[in-house]
Structures are given as structure tokens and as C-alpha cells.
Amino acid sequence: MAGETIQLLFAALFLLFLVYLLGSIFLKPLKLVFKILINSFFGLLILWAFNFFGAYFHFFIPLNWLTVLIAGFLGLPGLVLLIFLRLVLGS
User: Fold this and answer.
1) Residue 79 and residue 54 in contact, taking contact as beta carbons nearer than 8 Å
2) Could you tell me the pLDDT band of residue 91, with boundaries at 50, 70 and 90?
3) 68 in helix, strand or coil?
4) Secondary structure of the chain: what % helix, strand, coil (to 5)?
């Protein structure tokens, strides 16, 4: 009787470990996708605000997926990088 209880306890612990392991395997990519989306949204906001104020000086940075990702992941230094590239590369 005691042996069956111990086996049942070990089986339950193993099942709990498997659920935790599978959950962490499947949730990590979702967390990464969510983080990319949030950073891209903030990058879009940064670029939109810059283009809003840059319109007074006839200077803008095009909104595309690459510029949004650069501004989103690097933040303000990414915006400075995009401004520098726009000035150096021109048009």
C-alpha cells in the first residue's frame, strides 16, 4: 500500500515537471514575439513623433519595418543612428 502511494506521488511529480517543461518551451517564443511587438510599437511612436516635429524642418525618416525595428530595439540611440544615416546617405 505504501509502495503504491510513493509510485503515485513520483508519477504526479514527473507529470508536473513535464507540464512545466512543455509550458516553458512553448511560452518562450510567445514572450519573444510579444516583446518584439511591444518594442516595434514604441519604435513606431518614436518615429511618428520625430516625423511630426521634423516636418517643420522638411526632414523625415521613412516608416518601414526596418526603421521601426531599429528605433524600437535601440530606442533613442536607434533614432540618432537613423538620423545620422539619413544625413550621411541623403535622400
Assistant:
1) no
2) low
3) helix
4) 90, 0, 10
Contact 71, 79 (CB under 8 A): yes
Predicted confidence band of residue 52 (pLDDT cuts 50, 70, 90): very high
Query: Which ranges in 55-75 belong to alpha helices (H)?
Result: 65-74
Could you tell me which of 51, 82, 77 has the C-alpha nearest to residue 66?
A: 82
d(CA 12, CA 15): 5
* Among 27, 86, 26, CA closest to 51: 86
C-alpha cell at 34: 510579444
Which amino acid would we find at residue 28? K
Which amino acid makes up residue 23? G
Say if residues 17 and 45 touch (Cβ distance below 8 Å): no
Residue range 51-80: average pLDDT? 89
* pTM of the predicted model as reported, rounded to 2 decimal places: 0.67
Q: Residue 76: which pLDDT band, with cuts at 50, 70 and 90?
A: confident
